[in-house]
Amino acid sequence: MDDQKNRPHRPAKAKKKHSGEKNPKAFAFANTGRLAKTAARSADIKEKRFHVPQVDRIPDEPPPRLVAIVGPPGVGKTTLLKSLVKRYSKETLSNPQGPITVVSSKKQRLTFLECPNELEAMVDISKVADVVLLMIDGNFGFEMETMEFLNILAASGMPGNVFGILTHLDLFRKPQTLKDAKKRLKNRFWSELYQGAHLFYLSGVINGRYPDREIHNMSRFISVMKNPRPLIWRNSHPYTIVDSFRDITHPTKVEENPKCDRTVVLSGYLRGTNFAAQGQRVHIPGLGDFTVSAMEALPDPCPTPNMEQIVAKATGKTGRRRLDEKEKRLHAPMSDKAGLKIDGDQIWITREKGFNFNKDDENEERGEGEQLIVGLQGERKLLGETKDGIQLFSGGTTITNPQGLENTGRKEQRFARFAEDQNGIENEEFGDAGSDEGDESQLASGDEGEEEDWEISDDKLGRSFRKEADKEIGDIEFAESDSDLGSLSGDDSSNEDEGSDGEVNSGDEGYLSEDDDSGARWKANLTENAERLHNKRRAYRTSNLAKFIYKETMTPVQVLQRWRGQEEEEENIEDDDDDFFKKSGRERNDELMEDRAVPILDYDEMEAKWSIGDNVEALRRRFATTDLLRDQKSGSGSDGEDDGEDDDDDEGDGEFEDLETGEEHKPSDLEAEREKNARRKEELKLRFEEEDREGFNNDKANAKREGAAEDEEFGEDDWYDAQKAQIQKQLNINKAEFEILDDSQRVNVEGFRAGQYAKIVIENVASEFVTTFNPYIPIVVGGLSATEERFGFVQVRIKRHRWHKKVLKTNDPLILSLGWRRFQTLPIYSISDNRIRNRMLKYTPEHMHCFGTFYGPLIAPNSGFSAYQSFSSKTPGFRICATGTVLDVEEAPEIVKKLKLTGTPYKIFKNTAFIRDMFNSALEVAKFEGASIKTVSGVRGQIKRALSKPDGHFRATFEDKILMSDIVFLRAWYPIKPHRFYNPVTNMIGWEAMRLTGAVRADERIATPSQKNSLYKPIERVTRHFNPLRVPRALAAELPFKSQIVQMKKQKEQTYMQKRAVVVGGEEKKARDLMQKIMTVRNEKVAKRREKKEEKRVIYRKKVEENAEKRAEREKKESKEYYRKEGKKRRADTDGGGGGKRGKFGK
What we know:
The structure is a single chain. By secondary structure, this protein is α+β, with helices and mostly antiparallel strands. 34% of the residues lie in helices and 17% in strands. A hairpin with a 4-residue loop joins strand 28 and strand 29. Helix 2 (77-89) packs across helix 6 and helix 3 packs across helix 4 (144-156).
């Protein structure tokens, strides 16, 4: 080794320690094509995740998901609805109607709605459904209603969850036929929706419901669905699905006029955005536009277990952790589900079998509840009214109507007035018992000064008792007798219990028995109760707090006293020294805690805080009346006098002219005006920065949003996440601010939130809506924005549906479903010739989009719509005639129609001609001077000047000489505007569509009038003979050889062919005739023989095809049997060889 001459080996490199990360070489791609495909797939998956960032408006307690069950009649919609309701609520509905809400999980509810087989209902449900269960008859296949609903969904906005359900699969006898039908329907369903759309199979019906296992699988799938991306229309509009309806019109109005407008209450879960607290404009499809007169949030009739747990934590009770069978709830107001429902001041008792009490049976023994229900079944009577009269108390005398007094007394209901004479309550002398006239005169008599002493003012009674509130309320529930309201002065009780000497007859048992003592307890201690109620008031008035802030004359201490009500209490004590009631500590605590609208605060600490001037000034800077610029300058040490001079509201540069004297006044100081304007701009900027403390609207934030910030660079996914984070941050800020407010203030600021269960009161509804109400028809209440209440011309991109048989004609009535509305209008179709002109089309083009312009409500661009010619189910064929999107809304669309004016020449001078019959006056010619004209033969020309006589004739020049037989035409454009026709579809109260003239004639059986000028006449065209071309000999001689005219002289003598004549002789003629007859008979026999052979060949071909099918089937069976046997042999050889080998070596 020492004499080794070659180079020594390189020393081994030190191994690097493993860092824990993946070795890039170990995970590298060996194939570059595989690397490219993987990278492209990863990029596609990442891009599919990106959408335009959208505000998530789903509340913490979302409304129930609306599951619409859609399908043709007889496909099993009601059976599926019963099965799903039974699965979720363990209750059976015999006749499900309207929306049915069930609890599906701890935080989720579902509202099931069966769509009737009417096109109007399909259109409405397509706009609000969250989940669609599309039912298909597996034995029949896809029907027209199914395809129509899918196309309506595509136009209005396809929801993320559309499932197909195949029914009637138990009618298939062969398994292979069932398998093939499933495969065929699945592929067709996928082609209509998307590849991989879910399809469920329902085999049969057991005991009126589908099998429990199949319904269980479907319900599990529906319950675990994620919230899809919300549609733009639903995410920007408030709406609700009405699940209960009630008519609250006063019965007297209905009795007077059964056709009077009604006031209805519609209840349902609020969805979408927030409803405005006041003045919300809504549209009810099929009914019209309305203004919500009143709205009130109600307790949730079907709360989730999560909501109950939150309430349990707040109250200190422990809630359950899972959805037990007992907790499963069901809310179906229209389905006559048995139960008790409390709606405001009304109680609804529903029983599945109904109430069968006989109110006329007086001998039947009934309980107290049964007696109450029987009494409610009677006609409307006053409290205590019987056939004999009115009896106020049991055991008392019956008051009858005296004769002669029928036409006296009040003719209208009076408002309830709260009044009491504090000084005269104890010392009042009561009138005689039973004298009604004395009571009325006592109330009506008295001076005006006395009324001021004993009437309570509006300020003391509060806002709800003011006269303005009485005007706004309208219909007030009046007491049906004086005993309901009670007597403030105690006249009635004194008249009944006091004798003529003023002493109480305690021994008069005939008037009030011992049994009636409990019924008359309310009459005891009337004086004390009246004084206690009069002195009881609200201690806190939060409504005046905003007014106190702007009063500079009041100190914080006085504001606090006014707010707490201490000052008013002292004034009341001074005024009423005689009636001073000292309250105990317990009563004061009860008064402090009763009906509180604000939390209890430490008022001493508040007084110390707001007594400091700096704190008050800082609070003042938050209000709009503060001059921030003056504060800033005063803080920096500048003069405040100059600012005070410019506080006036004068605008402009100061230059004006006195119209009376004619003097012109120039501005005294233009620089001062400019400084004043600059100061105002700076003031607005400071106020804007003061309001935008979070910095969302300043210049830097705007620059970041617009992408102008060059310093900050986003990564591949950072921008999308940053936008979502910004939106979420704003949502959190809004949520935190709204949670500070109490419920009433939050409703006034934010409105009624989505997810709440509310009732909506709508007035002036047509009476047909109540009388013809159908619970199966869904009622949608959709909120309208300010833009959607305006009307104008809407331009859309429209395309005739490929399945609609007829093309659409301009100015034919068309029913559009646009937004919440359905209305009939007259569209005009056009196409863009160039950028400045839209040419009118008489018909829509085939397989091509065109523009459509119509008059209707304005709507946001890019909104989808669908068009129909009729909603009738008798219409044959596909009823959706067109679909499209909104492009623009404008006031004056520019649509022109091609107009051809024709004329004829009557004088021709080389290239100049005089034209007539095109215009009627020289003024019309002057308007078209310089316009291009053209003849039918293609010679172009131009209009020059109008002739003085005759009127309407003009001179024109052409590029070549025209003929007297030429027709000259002028191609012009005539502007067209759509008709202002808007006919809302009010199918819920009766609606008749605008019909075409042909339809009216067909319905009325009127013959079509014929016009003479419109009839077709035979056209006789005279053959025109043109003179031959005559070329002068001198000109012909000078022509080149190629262009020389070759003319042959006339043949003087006849040629041989003209001379000879072939005449067939007698025998030859007979022979030819015989041969022709023989060949005719032969050809006929050959044709018959060929037809007979063709019939036999058809039978033979059919037999060969059957044999080929049998042979193919036999060969297929033989090959299957052969391969089965071969497979067994190979499996046996493989198993046997392996075992023998192991045995050999094992030995």
